[in-house]
Write a structure and sequence with these properties.
- Helix content is 48%, strand content 15%.
- The protein is α/β, with parallel strands linked by helices and 238 residues long.
- Strand 4, helix 7 and strand 5 form a beta-alpha-beta unit.
- Helix 3 runs parallel beside helix 6 and helix 8 runs parallel beside helix 10.
- It starts with a helix and ends with a helix.
Length: 238
């Protein structure tokens, strides 16, 4: 029975998808290096895994019609946020920024004039993400935009990457404790429940660091008196 449960664990499914992907799809080198990296084992301690926490600021939530304005990411290594790894990139684009989005993100056309191209931005992130678990708050947004880029640029379906979603983790933890679903799952409100300080929102790097802090707090909350495994963290994310 244990072997069967292990086989169907979502982490094991990612491993099989990676193996299949590498044998059936001809990937560019920068992407093959991502997929070739071994996945953690279910029993590996979460504190021993390496993470890259990503946030995207966009003109909207539709990956097919909206644009990425900026990218921010930071590493979490040995349960510590490595601020030396922090990156924040504005991305150039040929379209007007939606006025309502500029107000929210505080990103103006002038900020984007000297920004990186989407290709350089994605390449930098893929290189930085090699061998790491990718983390985001409400990661469906980041995943959809990355998947659209991969499809539009390389004609590829979704890469079998390992994502943790701090929003999904919080939702499952909240439901398990209070048995209802009306908790506020925004990043700022979730951080407040953990006693984490309030940061300026809608800046890609600030939100990435905020999510990294939340991830570490959640790991402590799941198993206060012991170390949580990456298998448990990932299962809470899907």
């Amino acid at each position: 029975m244990k072997a069967l449960l292990r086989y169907f664990h979502p982490l094991e499914q990612i491993k099989r998808k990676r193996k299949q992907y590498l044998t059936t799809v001809n990937l560019p080198e920068i992407l093959s290096e991502l997929v070739e990296q071994p996945c953690p084992e279910q029993t590996d301690l979460a504190k021993n895994s390496d993470y890259i926490v990503l946030d995207l600021e966009t003109t909207g939530l539709d990956s097919e019609s909206d644009l990425i304005l900026s990218m921010g990411w930071v590493d979490v290594i040995n349960s510590k946020i490595d601020l030396a790894s922090a990156q924040h990139l504005y991305l150039t684009n040929d379209s007007q920024i939606k006025p309502e989005t500029a107000i929210i993100n505080h990103i103006t056309p002038q900020m984007l004039e000297k920004g990186a191209s989407i290709h350089d931005g994605m390449a930098a992130f893929f290189k930085a993400a090699k061998g790491k678990v990718i983390v985001a708050h409400a990661c469906v947004v980041e995943r959809n935009f990355i998947n659209y880029y991969l499809s539009h640029t390389y004609g590829l379906h979704e890469l079998p990457l390992l994502w943790l979603d701090t929003l999904c983790i919080e939702k499952k933890l909240g439901n398990a404790i209070s048995h209802h679903e009306d908790i506020d799952l925004t990043l700022s409100s979730t951080r407040k429940r953990y006693g984490l300080p309030e940061y300026n929102a809608h800046n890609a790097l600030a939100d990435a660091v905020s999510t990294a802090e939340l991830l570490l707090a959640q790991q402590k909350r799941i198993t206060p008196n012991s170390d949580v495994t990456i298998g448990v963290m990932y299962k809470l994310s899907v």
